[in-house]
Design brief:
heterotrimer; A alpha/beta (344); B mainly alpha (327); C mainly alpha (305); A: 344 residues; eight-stranded mixed sheet; globular; B: mainly alpha; MetI-like fold; 2 domains; 14 helices; 76% helix
Chain lengths: 344, 327, 305
C-alpha cells in the first residue's frame, strides 16, 4: 500500500451549461485507483459515472462543461492542468478507453487494421518501445511493424485468423467480436489505466461473460488499473475488486467489492441492491426507490439523496456529508452509515 | 433508376406538347418575315409539321430508335450532328467546374466544420450565401471585365481561337486532346479559354458542396467512433482529414450527383455570356427561334447524362462506403 | 396520437401562425435564435428595404419619365455623377431610375412565381396524397421530371412559346416550380391520412377539404413559408436569367436581367450600365437568401448544426 495510486481523483467538481441553466453534475468526486485494481463505478443513468470516466481522458467538451474545482492526479500529474497536446500524449498510450456500443464505436468506412495501425503508430510516437522499431526506420517499416503488432493484439483478444480478419470492415464482425476489436484498439498502446464505459451492456449475456473474462485476463497480464463503468451490480460482483456507487454526481459509497456488497452502508446502495432480482428474492419483495433523481440545476443543499431517503434527518439537509471510513477502506458518505433499519 | 426510360419518354411528350400546343408559330418564324402563307404551308409540309401532333410524335419516336433526333427547321441540319458536336464542349466545362467545386468545396467545408462558430465558419457561411446569390451571368461579366478587358490576361470568350488549328479530335475535350497530341501550347490555350467559364459555373456548386460537407462533417464528428479515435490518442488532424473526411464525403457525394445534372442545365447562361459552343448555347438559340427539335434533343441528352451521373455516384458511393459495397 | 394539439395558453403565439405544436416557449426560443443571428437580421433589413423601394418606387425615382420609355439621347453614356449617381445608358436614361423601378418588377415576378408554385404544389400534393394509387404515381413521376429537366431550359422553352410579357414569364417559371411543395404537402397528407383512419374523423363527416385546411395545412405552413422565403431569391435569379437571355420581359419594362443584357454590348467603356443592375440582382437575391437561411435555422434547428 506504499505505492502511490495510479489515478487519484480529488474532490472533482464539474458543471454543465444548458439552455435551462447550469447543472452541477459532479459534486466532489473522490476516487483512487492502483495498478491491478478493477474499480466498478455503478449508478443509474445520469449519475455522472460516464462523465467521471470521460473527465479522466478530458473528453468532456467544454463549453458546455466547466471544471469548478478538484484534481485528477495521474501518476502524480494533474490532468486538469494539461493542454490538449499534453492529454493526447496520454490518451491511447497511458490511458485506454472502451465505450459501450461496439457497433457505433468503430469507424464503418475503414478496415479495422487501418484503425488499429493508426492507434499503434500514435502510441509509438510517445513510447518507441511499443513497436520496437529503430528510431530512424522509415514510414513503411513503421507501418509494417504496427500491422504485426495489430495482428498479435487481435489474436490476444481472441480473434481467430487475426492475420486475415485484420483486413475486414467493422460490419463484417459480430457485436461481441467488434467489442474485442475495440478492446484490442484500447490495449494496443499498452495503457496503464483502462477506462471501460459499459463495455458489455450492448452485448448478449453469453458474450458478456466472455468479454469480462477477457478484460480480467488483460488486467492480470499487463498490471493495469481499470475503471469499469456500469449500471449492473452483477457485473461488478463478477469482475471487480473494488466498487464505487454514484448518485447524482457524488460517490456515496466505495470500497472493496466484498465489503460493500456484503455490508452496504449507504441507504442508496441498499436501495440499489434491493432492486436487483436474485434467486433468493420472492415475488413482491423486489423494491423500487420512491421519488426522482434530483434536479442538478437546483440540487438539494445537503445530502443529495436526502429527499428520497427514509432515514433522512434535519442534519442531512444542512450540508453534504463527508465520506467516512467505516473500516478497511470502505467509505460511505452518510451521517448514519450502517445497515440501519433495513428490516421492515 | 430503372424508371429512366419512362422519365425520358415523359420528357419528350412534355417538350413536344410545349412546342406544338402552346401559341407561337415556329414555322412562320423559320420561313422568314417575308414568306407568303403558301410558302409557310410548303415549309411546314417539308418538315411534316402539317400532320396531326400525334403522328408527328410517333414518327419522332420511331426516328429516335434509329438515332434520328429530327431536323432543325431553322438550319435544316440533323439535330444529332449538332448534339455530337456540342456535347463534349459542355461536358468539358461542367467537369472543369465540378472539379473546381469539389477540390475547393470539400476542404473548405471540412475547415468550416472544424472551426465551427468561429470566424472561418462565419466567413464560409456568408461566402456561400453570397456565391449562390451571385447571378452567373453577372459574375461572368465581372470576370470578363476584370481579366479580359482590363487586365487582358484571358480571352473574352470562345473555346479555341478560330485562327489556330485545334488538336486532333479524339475525346472532344480540347484540353485532353491537346495533351494526347502532346501539344502543350494548345493545352495552355484551351485552359485559358476554359478558366473563366469554369470559375463562373463552379461558384454555386462550390458553395453548396461546402455547406453540405460542413453539415455532414459536423454530423460525423458527433459519432461515437470519433470519440473513440480521440480517446485513443489519434491527433485531431488525422481524425478530421482521414477518418471524418471519408465518412463525410460519402454523404456529400449524393449532392454532387444531383448538382451535376443541375450544372448541365445551368450551362445556358455561362455559355451564352462566354460564347462557349456547347449544348446550352445551342439550346438557347433554338429556343429563341422556337425550333423545338434541338430543344428536345438537348433535354434528352442532359436527362441521360444526369441519369449516368447518378449511376456513377452510386458506384463511387460503394467504393467509399464499404457497407454498401458488400450488400 | 395527438390529432389536434391542445389549445395554446399563449394567444399571441397563435396569431403569428407558428405550428400548433410549438409552445410559447419554443416560439420565444426561435425568436431568440433569430435575433442572435446577425446575418438573418441583415437579410431582414435588406428585404424590408427592397419592399420599401418596390412599393414607393414611382415616388422616389428621380427620372420617372425614363422608366416609361422616354429617351434623352443627347445625354447618353454619362458616367456616374451627382445628377445621375449610376450614370446614364445608351438611350440617355438614368440608370438609377431604371434600377429602382426594376425592384418592383423583380420582386413582383419572384413573389408571383413562388406563390403560384406553392399554391399549385399544395393542390397537387394534396390530391396525390389523398388519391394515392396511380394518380399519386403519375403526379410524383411528373415531379421527378423536374430533377432531370434543367429548369432553366424548360422555363425558356415555355416562355418562348408563350411570347414575351411579365405574366407569361411568371407562368413559364412557375410551371416548373411546384414539385418541392407538392412533395412536402403529399408527405404530410399521407401521414395524416393514416391518423385520420384511426380517429375516424371522416366517419364524423369531415370533408377532405376540411381535413386539408384544418389538420394538414396548419402543420405544413411553417415549412412551406420557410421554403418560400428560401425560394424567393432563386426565383428572382431565374427571372433575371430569362431577362438576360432575352426571353421574357421586353423593354421598356425595366427588368434587371434585361438591362444587364443590353449593356453587355457597351463593355468595358460604359461599365456602369451593367454593374448597377447586376449588383441590384445580387443584393436582392442575397437578402432573401440570408433571410430564408435564418428562418430555416429558427424553424428547423436540425438543419442548422
Amino acid at each position: 500500500m506504499t505505492e502511490p495510486p495510479l489515478l487519484d481523483i480529488r474532490d472533482l467538481h464539474l458543471s454543465m451549461t444548458s439552455f435551462d441553466g447550469e447543472a452541477h453534475v459532479l459534486a466532489g468526486v473522490n476516487l483512487s485507483v492502483r495498478r491491478n485494481e478493477v474499480w466498478g463505478v455503478v449508478g443509474e443513468t445520469g449519475c455522472g459515472k460516464s462523465l467521471t470516466g470521460l473527465s479522466i481522458s478530458r473528453l468532456v467538451p467544454s463549453p458546455p462543461a466547466r471544471y469548478l474545482g478538484g484534481k485528477i492526479l495521474f501518476d502524480g500529474r494533474d490532468l486538469l492542468s494539461l493542454d490538449e497536446a499534453g492529454m493526447r500524449n496520454l490518451r491511447g498510450h497511458r490511458i485506454g478507453m472502451i465505450f459501450q456500443d461496439p457497433t457505433t464505436n468503430l469507424n464503418p468506412a475503414f478496415r479495422i487494421g487501418e484503425q488499429l495501425v493508426d492507434v499503434a503508430l500514435a502510441a509509438d510516437r510517445r513510447n518507441p518501445d511499443i513497436l520496437g522499431v529503430a528510431a530512424r526506420a522509415g514510414r513503411r517499416a513503421r507501418r509494417r511493424a504496427a500491422r504485426d503488432l495489430a495482428v498479435r493484439t487481435l489474436a490476444e483478444v481472441g480473434i481467430t485468423d487475426a492475420a486475415e480478419r485484420i483486413d475486414a470492415y467493422p460490419h463484417e464482425f459480430s457485436g461481441g467480436m467488434r467489442q474485442r476489436v475495440l478492446i484490442a484498439m484500447a490495449l494496443i498502446g499498452r495503457p496503464d489505466l483502462l477506462i471501460a464505459d459499459e463495455p458489455t451492456t450492448a452485448l448478449d449475456v453469453s458474450v458478456q461473460s466472455q468479454i469480462l473474462a477477457l478484460l480480467a485476463g488483460m488486467v492480470r497480464d499487463h498490471a493495469m488499473g481499470v475503471i469499469l463503468i456500469t449500471h449492473n451490480l452483477g457485473v461488478v460482483a463478477k469482475a471487480c475488486s473494488h466498487v464505487a456507487v454514484m448518485y447524482a454526481g457524488v460517490i456515496v459509497e466505495s470500497g472493496p467489492v466484498a465489503a460493500v456488497l456484503r455490508k452496504p452502508s449507504h441507504p442508496y446502495t441498499r436501495a440499489l441492491m434491493s432492486s436487483i432480482p436474485t434467486s433468493g428474492v420472492r415475488r413482491g419483495e423486489l423494491k423500487g426507490l420512491p421519488g426522482q433523481v434530483p434536479n442538478l440545476i437546483k440540487p438539494p443543499r445537503g445530502c443529495r439523496f436526502a429527499p428520497r431517503c427514509a432515514q433522512a434527518a434535519e442534519a442531512c439537509r444542512a450540508g453534504p456529508p463527508r465520506p467516512v471510513d467505516i473500516g478497511g477502506g470502505h467509505m460511505a458518505a452518510c451521517l448514519k452509515p450502517g445497515p440501519a433499519a433495513e428490516a421492515a | 433508376m430503372f424508371l429512366t426510360i419512362p422519365v425520358l419518354l415523359g420528357l419528350t411528350v412534355l417538350v413536344f406538347a410545349i412546342g406544338r400546343l402552346l401559341p407561337g408559330d415556329p414555322v412562320a418564324l423559320a420561313a422568314g418575315p417575308n414568306a407568303t402563307p403558301a410558302e409557310i404551308a410548303a415549309y411546314a409540309r417539308e418538315f411534316g409539321l402539317d400532320r396531326p401532333v400525334w403522328v408527328q410524335y410517333t414518327s419522332y419516336l420511331t426516328g429516335l430508335l434509329g438515332g434520328n433526333f429530327g431536323v432543325s427547321i431553322f438550319t435544316r441540319r440533323p439535330v444529332i450532328e449538332d448534339l455530337i458536336a456540342y456535347t463534349p464542349a459542355t461536358l468539358e466545362l461542367v467537369f472543369a467546374a465540378m472539379a473546381l467545386a469539389i477540390l475547393i468545396g470539400i476542404p473548405a467545408g471540412l475547415a468550416a466544420a472544424v472551426y465551427r462558430d468561429r470566424w472561418p465558419d462565419y466567413l464560409s457561411r456568408v461566402a456561400a450565401l453570397g456565391a449562390i446569390s451571385m447571378p452567373r451571368f453577372f459574375l461572368g461579366l465581372l470576370l470578363q471585365l476584370a481579366f479580359a478587358m482590363w487586365l487582358g490576361w484571358l480571352p473574352l470568350g470562345g473555346r479555341f481561337p478560330l485562327t489556330d488549328d485545334p488538336p486532333r479530335l479524339v475525346t472532344g475535350f480540347l484540353t485532353v486532346d491537346a495533351l494526347i497530341a502532346q501539344d502543350l501550347s494548345a493545352f495552355w490555350t484551351a485552359c485559358r479559354h476554359l478558366a473563366m467559364p469554369a470559375i463562373a459555373m463552379s461558384l454555386s456548386p462550390l458553395a453548396t458542396i461546402m455547406r453540405m460537407m460542413r453539415a455532414s462533417t459536423l454530423e460525423v464528428m458527433q459519432q461515437d467512433y470519433v470519440m473513440t479515435e480521440r480517446a485513443l490518442g489519434l491527433s485531431q488532424r488525422l481524425i478530421v482529414t482521414k477518418y471524418v473526411a471519408r465518412n463525410a464525403i460519402s454523404a456529400t457525394l449524393t449532392v454532387i450527383g444531383l448538382y451535376f445534372g443541375w450544372l448541365l442545365g445551368g450551362t445556358v447562361l455561362v455559355e451564352t455570356i462566354f460564347d462557349w459552343p456547347g449544348l446550352g448555347l445551342y439550346a438557347t438559340k433554338a429556343v429563341v427561334t422556337q425550333d423545338f427539335m434541338p430543344v428536345i434533343g438537348v433535354t434528352l441528352v442532359i436527362g441521360t447524362l444526369f441519369v449516368c451521373a447518378n449511376l456513377l455516384v452510386d458506384v463511387l458511393y460503394g467504393v467509399i462506403n464499404p457497407k454498401v459495397r458488400t450488400e | 396520437m395527438s390529432l389536434t394539439a391542445p389549445p395554446l395558453p399563449d394567444h399571441s403565439a397563435q396569431e403569428i401562425a407558428v405550428p400548433i405544436s410549438a409552445s410559447g416557449q419554443a416560439w420565444r426560443r426561435s425568436l431568440y435564435r433569430f435575433r442572435q443571428s446577425t446575418l438573418s437580421i441583415i437579410g431582414l433589413i435588406l428585404v424590408l428595404g427592397l419592399l420599401l423601394v418596390a412599393v414607393a418606387g414611382p415616388w422616389i425615382v428621380p427620372f420617372p419619365e425614363h422608366v416609361t420609355g422616354s429617351v434623352a439621347t443627347a445625354n447618353r453614356f454619362r458616367p456616374p455623377s451627382v445628377a445621375h449617381p449610376f450614370g446614364t445608358n445608351e438611350l440617355g436614361q438614368d440608370v438609377l431610375s431604371l434600377v429602382l423601378a426594376g425592384t418592383r418588377v423583380s420582386l413582383f415576378a419572384g413573389l408571383a412565381v413562388v406563390l403560384a408554385g406553392a399554391f399549385v404544389g399544395t393542390v397537387i400534393g394534396a390530391v396525390a396524397g389523398y388519391a394515392g394509387g396511380w394518380v399519386d404515381e403519375v403526379l410524383m413521376r411528373l415531379s421527378d421530371l423536374k430533377l432531370t429537366v434543367p429548369g432553366l431550359i424548360f422555363a425558356m422553352a415555355i416562355a418562348a412559346a408563350l411570347g414575351p410579357g411579365l405574366v407569361n414569364m411568371v407562368i413559364a417559371i412557375a410551371a416548373g416550380w411546384w414539385p418541392g411543395y407538392a412533395r412536402l404537402v403529399r408527405g404530410e397528407v399521407m401521414a395524416k391520412k393514416e391518423e385520420m383512419f384511426v380517429t375516424a374523423a371522416r366517419a364524423l363527416g369531415a370533408s377532405p377539404g376540411r381535413i386539408l385546411f384544418r389538420h394538414i395545412l396548419p402543420n405544413v405552413m411553417t415549412p412551406i413559408i420557410v421554403k418560400m422565403s428560401l425560394d424567393m431569391g432563386f426565383a428572382i435569379l431565374t427571372v433575371a436569367s430569362l431577362g438576360f437571355i432575352g426571353i421574357g420581359v421586353k423593354p421598356p419594362t425595366p427588368e434587371w436581367g434585361a438591362l444587364l443584357s443590353v449593356s453587355r454590348n457597351y463593355m468595358p467603356d460604359f461599365w456602369w450600365t451593367a454593374i448597377f443592375p447586376g449588383l441590384a440582382i445580387f443584393i436582392a437575391v442575397f437578402g432573401f437568401n440570408l433571410l430564408g437561411d435564418g428562418l430555416r435555422d429558427v424553424f428547423d434547428p436540425k438543419a442548422r448544426r
